[in-house]
Design goal:
heterodimer, A: about 190 residues, alpha+beta, 6-stranded mixed sheet, 5-stranded antiparallel sheet, 12 strands, B: about 350 residues, alpha/beta, 9-stranded mixed sheet, 4-stranded antiparallel sheet, 15 strands
């Protein structure tokens, strides 16, 4: 396996998979707006297949000059969309944040205490949820009361159950997938 | 002084005798714990003993921390309000309304949620100047040659409204990881990161409309925040660094499009890494000239046109310096080169 990934245009099935997943989460019109005029690139030749959203200008520069003249591959480019792990698309915080700002859907707002804990990698309890931004998917955005993007979590209950009184307050309803505390824990 | 290393300046003569320490330099070096040759250079450079002592005294005393607000994600008024609510006291930097000194609460500024959300970047005030001087537009193809950890790259992206293209180069693997992390944290999406030796960019002839070369340097301007710099750099190390800087700036000029602009900066106050490098460039290329700077002239000090007994190109007065003892910022040098 080569040390460096090779960046190639993502195949049609992969593009379709990503666009469909994101559209289900944030709405087709919002995904179309953010993706307009851009191309999805994927890394090949390494264990993890990372995905990037690339503008036409960047695409042309990479192809003509970085690959063409320098004979190099980028380390990263454009907007990180996530990765494909065992054939499954895992969304990044970068694109989820951008799409939440556009769509204001598929999210839960949590109280201050839960916000702080979530940024330390903790899960969300039913009693911490202040607001739901429907419709929800399995993976939802977590925001604080200022609508700052905190990360992503995976619902353990059905969306409609979220605000129902049948859930116990301390019950974990959403498992931390990734949070912005990553930038302190690993990103430095 | 024995010349046992190569002088990288091929187009003008310098005698290394200028660094031979006088009795006064030896005394001050002993008093403040500096290498004597450094103090001798400060005496000759500043030509004022009081100033020299002020500079030496500042070593290790620290500087006020500063942050740059990221308007890709939040308005500066909103950020200020939020930080003040967390007992962080800010003062706007007089020459840059998106930059703030942290007067109170600086110990926690790297851990606040607003930091994680990418609402600001912690960086020295001097480091905010080079992107402002380069002033890229959303249509530019910009090269950032030594990009990690990304303070200036993300600033360039903000100035470009996340449009256009920034090619950001970094050689070191660990520093590249930090760069990528900061790009992501700050919400930047117009960069192409390339892990390579920046000198290799010369193969991309005339492809960039704007280039930022914040060159690797001895960090002699960081004395107030890093006292190890007092004894870290020997004269031969300084010249080795200058040699690398010349290679980098030559590669940058090759990659710069006609009419394009290159901002060269270092966090060093050493003329050998600054005015001497620019002088070498002006003597080597007949298709470059120095451009006017727009932000730093209101408070900076003009570049030396004669130093250590060497007369340099008079245009170098268009370059500017920041001195820690005068400006309460990291020492810095900035110059703009325009390709004709």
């Amino acid at each position: 396996m080569p040390e460096y990934p090779i960046f190639v245009k993502a195949s049609e099935p992969i593009v379709k998979n990503i666009v469909t997943t994101l559209s289900q989460m944030f709405g087709n019109e919002n995904v179309e707006r953010v993706f307009a005029g851009k191309t999805i690139y994927i890394t090949r030749g390494v264990e993890r297949n990372e995905l990037f959203l690339v503008s036409a200008n960047m695409e042309s520069f990479v192809s003509k000059y970085i690959k063409g003249i320098m004979k190099k591959e980028p380390y990263s480019l454009g907007l990180f969309l996530g990765q494909i792990v065992k054939g499954k698309y895992e969304i990044s915080m970068d694109i989820a944040e951008k799409l939440f700002i556009e769509a204001k859907r598929n999210a839960i707002m949590v109280n201050d205490h839960a916000s702080a804990l979530f940024l330390y990698g903790r899960d969300i309890m039913a009693k911490s949820i202040l607001k739901v931004y429907p419709p929800l998917s399995r993976i939802v955005v977590v925001v604080n009361r200022f609508e700052d993007f905190l990360g992503l979590c995976k619902l353990t209950v059905k969306p409609k159950e979220l605000l129902s009184e049948t859930l116990k307050g301390d019950e974990i309803v959403c498992l931390n997938v990734i949070d912005k505390g990553w930038f302190l824990r690993k990103g430095r | 002084m024995t010349e046992y290393f190569q002088i990288p300046f091929k187009t003008f003569k310098i005698s290394l005798d200028y660094a031979k320490p006088s009795q006064k330099a030896l005394l001050l070096a002993k008093k403040y714990g500096f290498l004597p040759y450094m103090v001798e250079r400060y005496i000759k450079m500043l030509n004022n003993l009081e100033e020299v002592e002020a500079l030496l005294k500042m070593t290790g005393q620290g500087l006020p921390k500063s942050i740059r607000c990221n308007t890709l994600k939040i308005s500066c008024d909103r950020l200020k309000e939020r930080l003040e609510r967390k007992n962080v006291e800010l003062r706007e930097i007089s020459w840059f309304k998106k930059g703030f000194y942290v007067l109170k609460g600086s110990e926690k500024i790297g851990y606040l949620h607003e930091y994680l959300f990418g609402y600001y970047f912690i960086q020295g005030a001097s480091s905010m100047i080079p992107p402002l001087e380069l002033n890229p537009s959303p249509t530019d193809i910009v090269l950032d040659m030594c990009a990690a950890p990304g303070g200036k790259t993300t600033h360039l992206a903000e100035l470009m409204g996340n449009e256009g293209v920034i090619v950001a180069i970094e050689l070191n693997r660990e520093r590249m990881k930090t760069l990528r992390s900061n790009i992501s944290r700050m919400g930047v999406s117009n960069t192409i990161l390339i892990r390579t030796d920046a000198r290799k960019i010369s193969v991309l002839k005339e492809k960039f409309s704007k280039i930022l070369l914040d060159a690797p340097c001895t960090g002699e301007g960081l004395l107030p925040i890093d006292p190890t710099r007092k004894t870290k750099t020997k004269l031969e190390d300084l010249y080795r660094m200058a040699s690398r800087q010349i290679e980098l700036i030559k590669a940058a000029i090759e990659a710069l499009a006609p009419g394009g602009e290159l901002v060269y900066s270092t966090c060093s106050i050493a003329p050998e890494e600054n005015e001497f490098v620019i002088n070498e460039v002006l003597n080597t290329f007949d298709n470059v000239k120095l451009g006017e700077l727009s932000v730093i002239p209101s408070f900076g000090v003009k570049g030396f046109t004669e130093v250590f007994g060497t007369r340099l190109n008079s245009d170098i007065s268009k370059c500017y310096r920041i001195f820690p003892h005068k400006h309460e910022m990291e020492g810095f040098f900035i110059c703009k080169i325009v390709k004709t």
